Amino acid sequence: MSIAHIHLNYPLTTATSSSYGVSDESHSLRDAIKDIQRRHSETASGQRISQIRCALLEVFLDCRKPNWDGYDAKPISEKTYFEAAKLLERLPSDLPPPEIAPEPTGDIAFEWYKENQYTFVISVSGVNAIAYAGIFGPGNEIHGTENFTESIPRIIIENIQRLFPSEI
């Protein structure tokens, strides 16, 4: 598969502007946003995000067929991939980068691991929801599901920060 094909069918970024404006000001604003995004991608944090995007794309391409794991795993759908890409774009840049993993249910998981019994995992399945589970030491667990349409729910960000308080 060519790189051009990958970029056309599975963009590494999601649209950040849903404006349908047609005025000169709207076009200028859209161009300014694109310039900011381009300059950001040239920074260290932008390169880090680019590496995570590549990992996400690799997970999707490797796991989009049924039985990708040899144990009857469900395929990761395009809808799930795009939702994961949207989530990745909306993660605050001051958070540590997650590990990205496919799940046999067809979901995509983002995992933050600190040490034994200190882990936080979120997953998306293309249904505008984030499932999450965290362990913050012996007997200190949390789990749930939150709606995800535009911004990442505060409880998700707070629990990632809870895992890495001194690094933020």
If you had to describe this structure to a student in words, what would you say it looks like?
The protein has 168 residues and is of the alpha+beta class. The protein has one domain. It has 5 helices and 5 strands; from the N terminus they run H-H-H-H-E-E-E-E-E-H. The protein has a 5-stranded antiparallel sheet.
Portion of residues within helices: 25-40%
- Average pLDDT: 84
Record the strand order, biggest sheet: 1-2-3-4-5
Unreliable segments (pLDDT under 50, ≥5 consecutive)? 1-18
Shape: globular
Structural class determined from secondary elements: alpha+beta
Compute the separation of the termini in Å: 39 Å
Largest sheet: 5 strands, antiparallel
Q: How many beta strands in the DSSP annotation? A: 5
What is the string of SSEs from the N terminus onward?
Answer: HHHHEEEEEH
Evaluate the radius of gyration. 17 Å
The fraction of residues in strands falls at 15-25%
Domain unit count: 1
